[in-house]
Amino acid sequence: MLQPPRKTLKITKTAASGAVQKDNKTNKSGRPATSKPYAKSGQPARSAPLAPAPKSSPSSNGITDQRRPGKPTATDAAAARPVVPASLSPSSSSNAPSAQPNAYVHDTSGIEYLDIKADSLAFSLVGAAQAVAYVLDGVALPQALAKVFTQSKATPQIKGAIQDISYRTMRQVGRVDALLTLMTTKAPEPALLYGLLCCALTLLVKNEAEEDQELPYEAFVVVDQAVNAAASSSHMAHAKNMVNAILRRFLREQDSLLATVIKQPAALWNYPQWWIDQCKAAYPDQWQAILRTGNQHPPMTLRVNRRQITTEAYLQTLASEHIEAIQIGPYAVRLTKPVPVAQIPGFEQGWVSVQDAGAQLAASLLDVQDGMRVLDACAAPGGKSCHILETANVDLLALDADPQRLGRIDENLARLQLSAEVKEGDASRSGWWDKQGFDRILADIPCTASGVVRRHPDIRWLRRKADAVQLSTLSARILDNLWRMLKPEGKLLLVTCSIWPMESELQAAAFAKRHNAIRLDAPGQLLPTAIVADRITEQTTEQTAEQATESDTTSAENNDHDGLFYALFQKPAA
Length: 574
What we know:
Layout: H1 74-79, H2 121-136, H3 141-152, H4 156-183, H5 191-202, H6 219-231, H7 240-261, H8 265-269, H9 273-282, H10 287-294, E1 300-304, H11 311-320, E2 325-327, E3 332-335, E4 352-354, H12 361-366, E5 373-377, H13 383-391, E6 395-400, H14 403-415, E7 421-424, E8 438-444, H15 459-462, H16 467-483, E9 486-496, H17 505-515, E10 518-526, H18 542-547, E11 564-570
Parallel strand pairs: 5-6, 5-8, 6-7, 8-9
Antiparallel strand pairs: 1-3, 1-4, 2-3, 9-11, 10-11
């Protein structure tokens, strides 16, 4: 994965490119490069339009029901350490966390913008590069972006551009890292410089998993603005000529360079090697479709609040606002093109919430009825709790161990005009329990979140192979603890957003055996799906093309959801 910075830097010479002079001279003024910039419009690239807002904004979509990297428990937080670059090596199979080199520690006091316009692509590249550097240190991307936004005091438009570039980069890290390894003999340092090169290369490399293959900027704009970004920081100014050389070499030799790096599975699929191997073993017929889906932008799916408006009426409201959408479930509406949450009609009034189509199955599966006592364990940010309350008049307790995330539940309840008891508590313990049994329990247990990587592409780089074992152990304790709180003949719904059998079907089977639980009908494993054509790039190896059969293709119009697992249990009568 992400290469640890090496102590010196030299551009690799090739017959095609000729010798490239290494530049270690510092630009004392820290000013942008003086080469004449050009943008698509003919205007200076430093005033070029910002990158388009992300097709889906995972950090600002309102209610989401996907686990962030790192569950709010000590065990899961410890597990969410970054995978070192060796994870890209086919021979890497170690499960142990590797120590992070000191070179990864970077200045966190703020982002430098010495002489750079806030409305330029260069400004956004510096912000995105800093976010990538934070991920190198093991920070989940949403939290990394929050730090960058605070430090840079960016406007909403600039935040959207920084976020878009950051998420694009996380989906292409495997490939751009391999390109940097091929074009340099020493990894760029500091981490901020490495992040800048990753972001710039990402804007030059097409993501074949996406329906839209058009790059967001002209290539020469990206090169010029990346050089300006390097020159704007005292941490990178010494390497601005090197940034220029690497990016221009890629443009000259991109066909041969890409053909070389995609021979490595981690560069071809943009996942750590262990993740690819594990996916192959678990799903020998679907692994390629699963990996491709994880490299796409997620759809924006809304859940209509039946207490406020009907689905049909809301679709008419969208049409009146010229927003294209289709109904894909009783209360599920998918927008043809994602829009900022602030622009969703009726969002602030509580008409709708943003929630994946697969996650919307939980409330109906739980079969709640008026007057029941319901527990939503591990409830934050509250998407499923709110859906349950929209479905029936119940006495609901929303429990979560992370006090910082409890506020999200309160906010969503208030916006949707719903009420519930919100309490801080560890679902694996019982100190919060009043000894009164529950009719229904929703156990959305800790997991690796391997089923939601298209929403949180940094997960694949932050997780380790051993995490599933650790989290499964924690989840088993939670399930055992919650089972004794369930009334006889009550129902418990086990939910994970993982695709690993150890966290899903194997967990469910072991739980049923331990407690003699009655297993009821439920979907089981829902693999992540997306509406895309089966596309293999020209650079893909012949072997890979042969393996990519039509069975990998997902084409059902309404079959576009994250990877989740559902198992429903009933407690025997006393």
